[in-house]
Design a protein that fits this description.
Strand 6, helix 7 and strand 7 form a beta-alpha-beta unit. This protein starts with 13 loop residues before the first helix and ends with a helix. It has 14 helices and eleven strands. The protein has two domains: about 170 residues, 3-Layer(aba) Sandwich (D-Maltodextrin-Binding Protein, domain 2), CATH 3.40.190; about 130 residues, Bacterial extracellular solute-binding protein, family 7 (D-Maltodextrin-Binding Protein, domain 2), CATH 3.40.190. With about 350 residues, the protein is α/β, with parallel strands linked by helices.
Length: about 350
């Protein structure tokens, strides 16, 4: 397995981590469909959403009797490149699958950025109800039409996105001027800017080193990701802003989809959807546990003034709709959905 090019700790340090690693699978039988699945996150089977989804998918394929017909090689920790490069490779059919937040594909299809609007969702259960009511349909259609990418499952990132920083944050004033890493997404960058931060887009694989060197003052992410990626080693204050409930997306190249035998394809897609549901349930279960473990590792978990942050971010949705009026039906459906 490759080690991150920026010199960050090797994947799951030591032999124990290597024992867990599924990235290199045994030789597939002749005629087996071989797929590559990429994730930017660490190879952690409990707290890293890409590995969790992969494990559930393999289990579902075996249950369906497809385990020997479809072989999936899993590449965690940016082994196939930074996310912005991987999503383009999925578009081209060079990489078959990618597990990531919805945010990364907004660089290809800006409408996807709808799901990154600050304080749009109030919880993950509300998100599921909105998605079940059809909120994802325009997004999926736009991704397929404009980028040749299919969404084959929706799940949750493992908790709402909040801010881990090198100093305490209670109010927007505390955040003023701090260099907080965001995804390379214009919508998330704007959200953090409105919250008061000096929003700093940066590839996920560069974050640990940047925090270590003081190039960044913090980042925004969910608790299990912070735990799995060991960001708590570099920053000790976690403010529960909960500004984005980010959906977890499994992207699938349409070029790969078209190459698959239709009968095999339908079974695979069914397993992918079921694995997404499994991953949702897992994500809800581990968020609180991850927060408790972060506290044990010396991180101060701060119940900050969410109302003050929400008030500052409120104009974002109005501004987004002015630029992207086609997002209105999606936003209205989400806002009308309750839990």
């Amino acid at each position: 397995m490759a080690v991150n090019q920026f010199g960050r700790r090797p994947l799951l340090r030591g032999a124990a981590g290597l024992a867990l690693a599924p990235a290199i699978i045994g030789r597939a039988r002749a005629g087996t469909v071989k797929l590559k699945l990429s994730s930017s996150q660490a190879n952690d089977p409990k707290y890293a959403n890409g590995r969790v989804y992969y494990d559930f998918l393999i289990s579902r394929l075996k249950e369906a009797g497809l385990g020997e017909q479809i072989a999936i090689s899993f590449f965690p920790d940016n082994q196939l490149g930074q996310e912005i490069d991987v999503i383009n490779s999925v578009k081209l059919g060079v990489i078959d699958m990618m597990v990531s937040g919805s945010s990364i594909s907004a660089n290809l299809v800006p409408l996807v950025g709808t799901f990154d609007l600050g304080y749009l969702f109030s919880s993950f259960p509300q998100q599921t109800r909105a998605f079940d009511a059809g909120a994802t349909r325009p997004i999926e259609e736009a991704l397929l039409r404009m980028a040749g990418i299919r969404v084959i499952s929706w799940a949750y990132n493992f908790g709402a996105r909040s801010i881990l920083a090198r100093r305490p944050i209670h109010t927007p004033e505390d955040l003023r001027g701090l260099k907080i890493r965001t995804l390379p997404s214009p919508v998330i960058t704007e959200c953090l800017r409105l919250m008061g931060a000096a929003a700093t887009p940066l590839a996920f694989g560069e974050v640990y080193t940047a925090l270590q060197a003081g190039v960044l003052d913090g980042l925004e992410h969910d608790p299990p990701t912070i735990l799995a990626s060991k960001f708590y080693e570099t920053a000790k204050f976690y403010a529960l802003t909960q500004h984005i409930f980010s959906p977890l997306t499994t992207y699938f190249s349409d070029a790969t989809f078209q190459r698959m035998d239709p009968k095999l394809r339908e079974g695979f897609l069914s397993c992918a959807r079921l694995a997404g549901a499994d991953t949702r349930a897992h994500g809800l279960a581990v968020e609180q546990e991850a927060l408790e473990l972060l506290a044990q590792k010396g991180v101060s978990v701060i119940a900050c003034d969410q109302a003050a942050f929400r008030a500052r971010v409120l104009p974002q949705t109005t501004n987004f709709l002015a630029r992207m009026p086609q997002a209105r039906p999606v936003i209205e459906l989400i806002q009308a959905t309750t839990i």
